[in-house]
């Protein structure tokens, strides 16, 4: 087995490994249930690699008793739950790596994290990752338990991510820590077991080494499976590729395997390209799709995006770029092969799309942390897994995603697809005027700020292959993280000893 994450076997991916089991997990309600069971079953080493972790969230909203315990008898909140698991599992070490910029984006979440690392068990370890260029983001979302099972996708264990696949209007469980309602939220991750999980463990330990300078030994192989009994297996004994984006830093070159995998998929697509993404602004990806739309027999392209971003500034920064890209695609779409939609609830409320999914011809599935924007292609740190050449399994997973958006069963969706023959015609046949449905995404109003942000790509930069990336010795993200960490640590000590 290749154990060096710096060796690239192919420009399209880092490694190809066997997955004994593979599961597509849709929306955070199901993910948090599976994650909780896997964490409880961990015995030696639990690796938590994320953009952010909010230790105060309830993993199972609405299921706590008067003592804050979930139905399994352990604390419902993530932080106390991790503490209890370490207490019960006497050999378990937990390593939590989060983006150091998260202390600036959400400073209130740092104190509980440091409190757990400093005042909690000595077997819970924390690192803030600043091993990236200034302004870049550690964006991977990976969990690995004992190298036996791993999760990789788009779901963060943080606030405002929880929702069910029903996306019920006014669901009383879908609230923030203040009890305020949060938006319906669509998200996707995956689970793998076997050698593919061990490879993600290797990648995660390498990330820890870069962030802390500490080498972690892999866990001792275990014979008993810790795959949750109620986690549906969508495919067995399949090859899974792992692809990365890593910006150039401290002499290491750009790794843009995810971008190359996307571009190869677009070039090779025969019938359909299906995309779910938080953004749609990657210049290389949109240009490649543009070229295919000019072909008379080129593939149909269906994109699912959120209607609006999470803030007005983000909307200006990212969706002006999306509007410009979509305008170019529509201009080239002489064969009527392109659609871009946003999903809504049964009450017509927009569902925020945070998923990162790319499917080619119902055969190859890419899923992970990478959005369709420049940052994810060559600036932020990302990880995707790719299920290759699995027509039945991947088609079934694509059917599941679209059936959810259209509010129909997978059986009805499949029958309609067989009747209509194309993805766009099937969506048109099933897309009602009310209830769960997909709505056409319209151009948003432009303004001076959005034009400036789009012209400069200030919030969506990237590095390109072979670009000169000489880095000065100025302020780096880790310096800002250290300052914020010192402030939070002082607060913890003051609270404990005052």
Write structural notes for this entry:
- It is built from 14 helices and 18 strands.
- Mean pLDDT is 91; it is low at 471-480.
- Helices cover 34% and strands 20% of the residues.
- Helix 8 crosses helix 13 (448-456) and helix 10 (391-406) crosses helix 11 (410-420).
- The longest helix is centred in the middle third of the chain and has 21 residues, at 312-332.
- Strand 15 and strand 16 (364-368) form a beta hairpin.
- It is of the alpha+beta class and 498 residues long.
- The strands form two sheets. The protein has a 16-stranded mixed β-sheet that branches. It has a two-stranded parallel ribbon with strand order 7-14.
- The chain folds into two domains: 15-236, Endonuclease Chain A (Endonuclease, Chain A); 242-456, Endonuclease, Chain A.
How do the strands and helices of this protein lay out in sequence?
Layout: E1 15-26, H1 28-41, E2 45-50, H2 78-88, E3 93-99, H3 102-105, H4 110-119, E4 124-129, E5 142-145, E6 149-153, E7 185-186, E8 188-193, H5 195-212, E9 235-246, E10 255-256, H6 257-268, E11 272-276, H7 283-293, E12 300-304, H8 312-332, E13 338-344, E14 352-353, E15 357-360, E16 364-368, H9 374-378, E17 382-387, H10 391-406, H11 410-420, H12 423-430, E18 437-440, H13 448-456, H14 477-497
Parallel strand pairs: 2-3, 3-4, 7-14, 11-12, 12-13
Antiparallel strand pairs: 1-8, 1-9, 2-5, 5-6, 6-8, 9-10, 9-17, 11-15, 13-18, 15-16, 16-17
